Amino acid sequence: MPWSSQNGGGGPWGGGGNKGPWGQGPQPPRGGGGGGGKPPDLDEIIRRGQDMLRRATPGGGSGGGALIGLIVVVFLLVIWLSQAIYTVQPDQRGVELRFGAPKQEIAMPGLHFLWWPFETVDRVPIVEQQMAIGSAGGGTSSGLMLTGDQNIVEVQFNVLYAVTDPKKYLFNIATPDSTLRQVSESAMREVVGRRPAQDIFRDNRAAIAQEVKSIIQSTMNDYNAGLNINAVSIEDAAPPQQVADAFDEVQRAEQDEDRFKQEANQYANKKLGQARGEAAQLREAADAYRQKVVNQAQGESQRFTAVLGAYQKAPEVTRRRLYLDTMQQVLGGSNKVILDKNAEGGGQGVVPYLPLPEVRAGQDRNQSGSSNTNQSTQGQGGNQ
Known about the structure:
By secondary structure, this protein is of the alpha+beta class. The protein has nine helices and nine strands. Strands 6, 7, 8 and 9 form a four-stranded antiparallel β-sheet that branches. Strands 3-2-5 form a three-stranded antiparallel β-sheet. The protein is rod-shaped, with a radius of gyration of 63 Å. It is a single-pass membrane protein.
């Protein structure tokens, strides 16, 4: 062994002959009777320990300290480079801080370098983000709101936003996401509180979402938060679970009311159309009658004027013609039996006893028989 003594029989520290590790025998206690040696020197102990460490190191310990120092330096350099070199992704922007104060420049996507630990970087996503607010996104009661007609509704909506100024987003507001959530809830409560429940349920969701978006954007601009609100979408609006049945009954009643109104409007339109058609028909008939009467009157006046002119030229002839025309109009459509008064007997005593109704009935039978004969003849000709 390296520490073995030439004389042999020593301990591991080179002593022998019952000597200690530094070549001295055991010292008697102070005041004892066996001869007194002096205690070991501390510097000597440190020196011998260093010698032993150098002998244990490969190469006699001449370059061991330098190698360890080099390893430590390389390790520290790697750590420093890992903090000093950073990457900004395409959907991010970086804000470098020097002693905690932001720099003027914004780090664009790519590889960048800074003097760490004096400089640090905060990365901010600039893509559109979605914040869900209501029972699905917030607390259990964050979606409960009071409407303008004193009803309670549970609203779930999303806010789509994007960061437009990373420095404002990081340093103008302590907690921008929490602030945006609170502002969004407040804006929705404000708008819903001014409107009836029917608007948020069915009728006017788009207008409500647009108004809420405008309020959120205006408030965040006042805070100088560096955010742009792209859209607000109402995902669901329903009554609370405890009163859902009552709201369903109200909805069914309102639907029945709308249906009855539509049916009444259809009936009214039908009747109104019929009345308008009848009125138009009556107006057209009255106008036609008016035109007919006017034309007849004008024709009669023109005919009278023409007859008057003819009468003034030939009174006797015109008088005779008027008489014949009048008799033709009077007797043309009546039943007549013509007797020749110049026959034998002069026709005296015949007229009172002549059965005129039977004569007329016989004439009618003869006419009907002749018409039936003509029809049968025509039918036979058609069959042939």
